[in-house]
Design brief:
Elements (H helix, E strand, L loop, with lengths): L4 H11 L3 H4 L1 H15 L4 H10 L1 H11 L11 H17 L5 E5 L6 H12 L7 E7 L2 H9 L1 E2 L10 H6 E4 L2 E4 L1 H4 L2 E5 L12 E5 L9 H14 E8 L5 H5 L3 E3 L7 E4 H8 L41 H11 L3 H14 L4 H13 L3 H14 L4 H13 L3 H15 L2
Parallel strand pairs: 1-2, 1-7, 2-6, 7-8
Antiparallel strand pairs: 3-5, 4-5, 8-10, 9-10
Length: about 400
Amino acid sequence: MSSHPEIERILQQSIGLNPSSIGSPAIARAFRSRMQALGIESAEEYGRLLHRSSGEMQELIESVVVSETWFFRDNAPFTTLVDFVKTEWLPQHPSATFCALSIPCATGEEPYSIAMALMDAGVPARRFRVEAMDISARVLEHARRGIYGKNSFRSTNLDFRERYFLRIEEGYQLSQLVRDQVNFRQGNLLAYGAIDGLYDVIFCRNLLIYFDEEAQERAIAALERLLAPEGLLFLGHAEIPLLTRRGFDSSELQGAFACRRKAHSQKRSTRKPSHDLPKPRVAKISKVHPKPKLPPAVDAVPPAKPTVAKPDLDRAADLADRGELNEAAELCRVHLRSNPDSVRAHYLLGLTRDAAGKEKEAVEEYRRALYLDPNHAESLAHLAAIFEKNGDTASAGRLRARVRRIASP
């Protein structure tokens, strides 16, 4: 299915979307579905409609935004959040209100997880508030209802569901006590003038990877403006290098992917986590990852045990080994059309682009693989090699340290 450059450009200008981040076929499916619904036969005519109709522009945005999420997605950020609030923020602010921002908040699982983590840690409801923002009106409507199906509960420890949800015919209804702690608003980080105040913690995970470079710069400037001087910023694993080049330090906490301004990161790094506080009762994710086999360009770790892969991807790997890069890449793309969440397909596609000298495309594919599996050591290793090649030795070192942690028994 072919896309249309003008419609991709309109989306890029409107929400900063990098077309390659979700793929031209996905954009084409979205706008052609809208054309069919409206009875429009020409892509050019639909493009003209987008220019004059903000309502249709919003409909198209709704069709292309990615809202994949679940409660306590990755446990480490929420554990780090609780430690920060209990051991650092509350002692320094005995009477203030702690403010957190989740952007984009999708269907609400992340901001509600923030609220539940703080409540489980004993932080009084009057002492914190959570703001949640997303560009999609549809997902916000879902979030405000607070009713979720089994796909929102993917962690192995679901104790929080027993405490905060009521089983109903439609699924699980979130307690009003938790819903009252979160305020949902429609908005776009690139239009940050509409967002008020400073936030002590911001969750902005896996948004920047969908932006083009210009939009990334604007979004980072917005995050810098919104984050309190001593605040903590949670990003996606592939996004940390974007901030370390802007005066931020990574927390170096395994799996947390948090950073803060250099002036305050040094102070926090010398403090050991408190062991006198009750452990927050947040969901734990137990995920076993095979030990990786690394390419020669990076530090060696124990090799992976062989795993059974799908035949088309095995063939793609064989073609790539023989240097038939275009054929291998096409097999990966075909596989991704029906299996868009295939980590191995994104990784192999990244390898083919890397070998073909298309570094930017390779980085995008490695990041997509890491978005789906933050501990995918092969993608981490190849990203490290690319960063080192381009002179970013600090980022390369951090990625390799993560590889070594993953490989540790």
